[in-house]
Amino acid sequence: MAELKKGVDPNFKYDVAAQPGGEQIKVCYSCGTCTAACPVTDVDPRYSPRKIIRQVLLGLREEVLSSELLWYCETCYTCSAYCPQNVKFGDVMRALREMAVAEGYFKPEFLERMRKVDHLAHAVRLDLVRAALEAKDQPEVSLEAALPEITKKLKETTV
Ligand code: SF4
Ligand code: SF4
User: Fold this and answer.
1) Given a cut of 80, is residue 107 above it in pLDDT?
2) DSSP state, residue 106
3) Are 56 and 13 within 8 A, CB to CB?
4) Fewer beta carbons under 10 A from the terminal one: N or C of the chain?
């Protein structure tokens, strides 16, 4: 019998597929449409939904579950909107995060900091959406008008 490469866990894909949402990795055929559509990949090309699914299928358990990239997904589901196989990668990511926490790759202190990051990010996004909506009806109002409030929030927040 061929020896398994060190760090490869052939059961990883089955464990992921057994999680709610994780079962969808089975129908992915690696076309890469998700990665092309992902707004996070746009700003950090190291992040690739297609690659993460491939790593799961290859059994790279520790590499996937300990990766900081696991926490980059914004669960916007843009990838799902374009996926020809209707894979909801945001749900796959949720399953992977739950496994990472359950298997001790991320500590409660880290998760508390992530909660603060998420809260701040949502508050900033809300300010920008409000500014965009106001700018739509009033050309004199611009997105830049929201910047002072956003800068104040950032200064007040220590993650
Ligand atoms: S778009 Fe869907 S099928 Fe294509 S790589 Fe992404 S998850 Fe897989
Ligand atoms: S749900 Fe995550 S992986 Fe999918 S497009 Fe949004 S940020 Fe990218």
Assistant:
1) yes
2) S
3) yes
4) N
